[in-house]
């Protein structure tokens, strides 16, 4: 399955780092900047499963919410995250990510960061699309592979957040978007931890952010 191949082929921990590319040192980002949020609520409670609500349906809704947030953040980086400025999809100097799907990129493929994010959003939208002609429910939720699909989407969401924090934190600050980024990431983090969609290893590239938020 795609999730199996992804774990083995689309993550490339790098032994030799490109010193010409400058990334933000997440350890040096002040906690005060990372704690700027849009709302002052307990996000862990906000993502918990409502009583009597089907868990798979709630996860589906949560994923759509997280994907919508990432699409907004991508728009915020318009003109900054380009094929020229970000020719590789990465999270700092240690992690490089390749794209793979079951359609046009059956082999793990090196793409630029904006290409990766665009492919990811399109791929996720197709997976979670509702067939309006036959049902109001998403067919993916009814699939026995839904939880595996949800985990794959969550892992790839982490990669997008990793790229934004490592490569574009200065732009986020300049545009006053850090409350949006931090709130979206915190909600996402609480959500995936609540439903076991990501492992500690998946979150490893962002551990310095996780410890502060």
User: Care to count the β-strands?
Assistant: 3
Taking Cα atoms only, what radius of gyration do you get, to the nearest Å?
A: 17 Å
Q: Which percent bin holds the helix content?
A: 40-55%
CATH first level: which class? Mainly Alpha
Strand line-up in the sheet with most strands: 1-3-2
What overall form do the CA principal axes indicate? globular
SSE string, helices as H and strands as E: HEHHHEEHHHHHH
* Structural class designation: mainly alpha
CATH homologous superfamily classification? MOB kinase activator
Under CATH, the topology is which? Answer: Butyryl-CoA Dehydrogenase, subunit A, domain 3
Beginning-to-end CA distance, first to last residue: 34 Å
What does this structure look like?
InterPro entries: MOB_kinase_act_fam, MOB_kinase_act_sf. It is a single chain. Strands 1-3-2 form a three-stranded antiparallel sheet. The chain has one domain (2-12, 56-210): Butyryl-CoA Dehydrogenase, subunit A, domain 3 (Up-down Bundle), CATH 1.20.140.30. It has helices at residues 2-9, 31-34, 43-46, 55-76, 113-127, 139-142, 146-174, 178-194, 200-203, 207-210, and strands spanning 11-13, 89-91, 95-97. Helix 4 (55-76) runs antiparallel to helix 5. Residues 1-8 and 15-20 have low confidence and may be disordered. It is mainly alpha-helical and 213 residues long. The protein is globular.
